[in-house]
Amino acid sequence: MKRITLTGIPGSHPVAAVQAMLDRKELPYVRRDFPNQLHRRLLRLRGFHGHTVPTVRIGAQHVEGSLAIARALDELKPLPPLFPADADRRAKVEELERWVDDELQQNARRLAYWAVQHDRSSLATFATPSYLPFPAWLTKLLVPVLAPVVLHGMHVGDDETRERLASLPAQLDRIDTAIERGILGGPEPNAADFQVAGSVGLLLCFDDLRARIESRPAGVLSRRLVPVYPGRFAPVFPAEWLRPLD
Questions:
Q1: d(CA 69, CA 54)
Q2: Which CATH number is 4-76's, of 3.40.50.280, 3.40.30.10, 3.40.1790.10, 3.40.50.12780?
Q3: Which of 34, 81, 174, 217 is deepest in the core (most CB within 10 A)?
């Protein structure tokens, strides 16, 4: 079997999705993280063309982005499959997969950016366990030092954040409906299941959101496929911003 290296950043939900796919296929791999924001330059030094994670090296092959990685993993090890054999079912899975990649993933990311700005202590919670190339004691010391660099690329305004919170109920409803229709949440998880699980897993890290999501089908699916998601955001959102979720 070719050596597999997964490269990410602490707390990344697309990386969590790919890591769960690798575990599902029982493919041996090594995960290595770069510090957030610094990863954009470090990836180029590692031979990748883009500046976002996840990236996977399979032997000499470089694959970038969770959508491409899912297909590369199915090619490497067809069973268990990440995509249905039936063409119609596959089309529905791929539609949801793209939607998560385009919309839900970004919504969770931008909410996390706002939360980090208002709760810097949350940064350390996402670095444990650490896949950074430092011993645990040094990681703990470096988090406060790197915080200004990390936060520099994470500015999100209040208006945008309030709008993103208001859009969450409809997004979660779409996931729950797909589970009810059997597109998601089946006994054999597909690529869209893992994409959803990663993004919802990040949302479940919010104290403000966890009780509102974890009992929904979307939350149950996420806990099933990504049972451990390190990181926690203490309550940070104003109560009136959360009313659309109640």
A1: 8
A2: 3.40.30.10
A3: 34
Residue keyed to tokens 């791999």:
29
CATH class of the domain at 87-245? mainly alpha
Q: How many CA atoms lie within 13 A of 138 on its CB side?
A: 6
How many residues would you count in the chain?
246
C-alpha dihedral sign at 74, 103, 209, 10: positive
Q: Dmax over Cα atoms in the chain, in whole Å?
A: 53
Domain positions in the chain: 4-76, 87-245
Secondary structure of the chain as H, E, C letters: CCCEEEEECCCCHHHHHHHHHHHHCCCCCEEEECCCCCHHHHHHHCCCCCCCCCEEEECCEEEECHHHHHHHHHHHCCCCCCCCCCHHHHHHHHHHHHHHHHHHHHHHHHHHHHHHHHCCCHHHHCCCCCCCCCCHHHHHHHHHHHHHHHHHCCCCCHHHHHHHHHHHHHHHHHHHHHHHCCCCCCCCCCHHHHHHHHHHHHHCCEHHHHHHHCCCHHHHHHHHHCCCCCCCECCCCCHHHHHHHC
| 83-110 confidence digits (pLDDT tens) | 999 999 999 999 999 999 999 999 999 9
179, 115, 233, 238 alpha-carbon torsion, rounded to 10°: -90
Q: What is the pLDDT of residues 21-42, one digit of tens each?
A: 999 999 999 999 887 766 566 6
Tell me if 161 sits within 8 A of 114, measured CB to CB: yes
